[in-house]
Each structure stands twice: as C-alpha cells, then as structure tokens.
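pipeline: protein-struct stage 2 | run 1193 | HTH-type transcriptional regulator
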Amino acid sequence: MSPVVESFVAHFGEMGSRWGINRTVGQVYALLFVSPQPLNADEIGETLGISRSNTSISIKELEAWQLVRLTRTPGDRREYYSTLGSVWDIFKAVAAERRRREVEPTLTMLRQSLLDPGANAADRYALERMREMYDLAEMSNNWFEELQDLSPESLLQLMSLGRKVQKLLAVKDRATAPLRKKPR
C-alpha cells in the first residue's frame, strides 16, 4: 500500500470502533473503497496482514451491512469484492442499515410503551417524554424514507442549501407572525 492508502485504511480502522464496527472490518472496507479493482479474500488478508478467518469474518460483516459487492472472474473460482458504486449509494446503504438496526427497534419499543396509560404521575410524565421522543424519531424516520427516494443530484442540492433553509424559514415566520397574533 502507498502511504496515502495506508493512512486512510488505518484511520478507517480506528474510526470503525467509534461507528460500531471492529477495527478490521473498517480496514477491509477502506481498502476495498480505494482499490481500483475488486480484491479476493487472499489479497485483502495479505495487504492488511490479517488472517484468512479474520478476513472472512470482516467480509461477512460488510455483506450484512450490504456495503460490498461480490463478483466472479471467468475461469477463477475465487470470489472478488468491491464496494458499492458511488459514495451516495454507500451513504444510503449505511443510513438504511442503521435505521433498521437502531431506529426501528426504538420506535417499536416506544409504540408499545405508549399503549400504557400510566399508573401514576411519574409514569404519565415519563410517557409524555417518550411521546416527544417517539414523535421526533417517527418524523425523522419518515423524512429519511423520503430522502432515500431522492437522486444523488437532488440530495447534493438539498445538502448544499444548508443555512439557506434556516433563513427561508425565518422569513416565513416573520411573514406569518401577524396572522398568528390573536386580536384583542
């Protein structure tokens, strides 16, 4: 590996543990991401200096996240791996998997909890707070579904709006404020 690739792979490995994956999975992913052609498990293991079993486990984890693509070469029995096409495809895959693993179970638990009427004031207060959390998570989840349907170009436009959206909402609030005031 060149120094620039080695640095990227090492950094991704360190960041992997902060993202909820182990270091080796992060390194395997980073190596595949910057590789100009698909790599087989032996090439991955040799490049990173990891065992065949560790390579295999890491690839399986990346497959579970739907972040790698399996290909075969005619006349070669080995399996070759590459990452998804664009960074937008990767972003959508990671976001969808995190949603499936983290957001959906939380929404399910909150829905079930909110069916309880609350036995006392402390429970009713807790349920009120959980309702706020549920509403925000549900709204975010619905917004995410809408984002998944956008093209990469539309996502880029939306993201580049940044503070312009905040300014537009402030103008709207100023314009509608007189309409919201109640007559005396």
